[in-house]
Amino acid sequence: MSAIARYFHSKGIEVSGYDRTQTELTKELDNEGISIHYNEDLAAIPKDVDLVVYTPAVPKEHAELVYYQEHGYPTEEEMAEATAQVAEEERIFDEMDAAREAERRSRYRTRDEPPGASAARRAQGPT
User: Fold this and answer.
1) Alpha-carbon distance values, 89 to 53, 86, 93 (Å)
2) Whole-structure pTM over 0.70, yes or no?
3) Is the pLDDT at 117 greater than 70, yes or no?
């Protein structure tokens, strides 16, 4: 779920969450601006939400999940996997773009040379 939280947070969406125990990962999320609470407490959950995403690890009788479901909030268990996949694919594409850019830059002697300068030097032959 942390990948999903980070993904939506990176898109400027307000994200908050619940976990049974505080861990290094939940501390990192909190430090990144993602609010995490650790007690099953209806007073601790935001009421102005567009979507509640949860994992199968959350019991169906969890008070916060039940509250959201009974009050008509959209809840998605399956979306967790799909969103994590989207986030992973986006990360892979970012890495591919960075690798292509590094390869493109490695073709030039200096970073300041315009595209095609290396080809022009090769066409002139040795000096």
Assistant:
1) 19, 5, 6
2) no
3) no
